[in-house]
Sequence to fold (302 residues):
Amino acid sequence: MRYRGRFAPSPTGPLHFGSLVAALGSYLDARTHGGEWLVRIEDVDMPRTVRGAADGILRTLEALGFEWDGEVVAQSRRLDLYHGALVHLQLEGDVYPCSCTRSEIAAATQRIAVDGGLLYPGTCRGGLADGMAARAWRLRVPDHELSFVDRIQGEVRQNLERDVGDFVLLRADGQYAYQLAVVVDDALQGVNAVVRGVDLLDSTARQLWLQQRLGVPSPSYAHLPVVVNAAGEKLSKQTKAAAVDAAGGSEVLAAALRFLGHPVPPEVGALPVADFWRWAVSAWSIERVPAVRGIFPGGGAL
Fold:
């Protein structure tokens, strides 16, 4: 089977160094395997999307010599596909309507899920209370362990009922959840190898379960360490991460590759971008990538 990977940024701000690391890792892994590399704009959470951010990300990638295969797909144009998947799950009885507000969930439980939110206590699992209307739709999860072998982080195990709870696929504000959108998109685009940041590692078991319920194949997964600041926070718009300056060319790319555990000679950072990519594809080895969750550049691993 031909390797087909993807890079899927959320357009909530410009491309920062952490996003560049994810793009570079996924790109090199695809090219080293002679595979395709797709770009998808994950703007399904439309209230968080910043106007013009997607175009800025694509311009930065182009300026740094990234070459993707096929058209760039935007989730905001694929809502009918997510609706179709939700209807399928409704007909199969895999999802149920939920009337709970955040305050009601907080009053019912103090259990924390792996992603830091409150673990849903299953209030509406047996049906809506009289007089209550659906605000969201949740996927039923099993009370058994799901496991997979991550190509970087090793074996991962998670019990969805204990660690996550029944999770939302259609939110109260009418927005489709990331978990549903990414599973549908990966299946329809034929993505069979996912290389992304470790901040999404704890979402993977949810996606595996959803893939099983929809009857679609599961790709392989490799979760790269994320870039963190001195406070241990992942670089993001919220932590005021600076935009990548594409004028830095090969030196910027070399810094991202060094972050992923690859020694890059100083002279490689001075090469024209096209020559850097030729060198980097020949040098890439996913086995060199540190099996840690986060790294502070110039500091230590987390």
User: Anything to note?
Assistant: The chain has a mean pLDDT of 94. DSSP finds nine helices and twelve strands in the chain. The radius of gyration is 20 Å. The domain at 4-76+190-198+218-295 is CATH 3.40.50.620 (Rossmann fold).
